Prior knowledge:
Blueprint: H1 2-10, E1 28-31, E2 44-46, E3 55-63, E4 72-85, E5 90-97, E6 100-108, H2 109-113, E7 122-133, E8 141-150, E9 156-166
Antiparallel strand pairs: 1-9, 2-9, 3-4, 4-7, 5-6, 5-8, 8-9
Amino acid sequence: MKLICSIALLYLSSLVASKSFSFGGNQQRILVDDNLSVPGHNPLSFCSDPSDFILTINNVDLDPNPPEIGKALQIKAKGNFTEKVEQDAYINLSVKYGLITLINTKADLCAQMKEVDESCPLEGPKDFTKDVTLPKEIPRGTYTVLADVYTKDDEQVTCLKATVHFS
Length: 167
């Protein structure tokens, strides 16, 4: 559960990590849509054309990429909020293991930002680094994460997705 929040926030670029999320397996394959890929070394892609998003993501880098079970993962992200994002902004987060939905929730964005020593309002350029350790007890399989972020007035901040396969 911890890395799920991390990866979801990672998908928000500057809104990077909560604590840690469980992926599974010894060999990993990252599946990405190159047309909408988030810049950097990561498995992320935008859900749609990001030109209208409030958050402009400059890059997101994972080290190592792909993540390795039981090892440290460093997440670095840079982005720019073109408008102020205030309290009551939220994340619609969905995490699936294969066809099974593990998480389908609405989370408080500002509460999650405390994990990267930030607070709302969010505005202007942001640069984050977060280190997490992936658990050794990660089930093998395909994980799909979708993080759709909105302001309190339901304006889209960003929408990110990723699929990682561990075998």
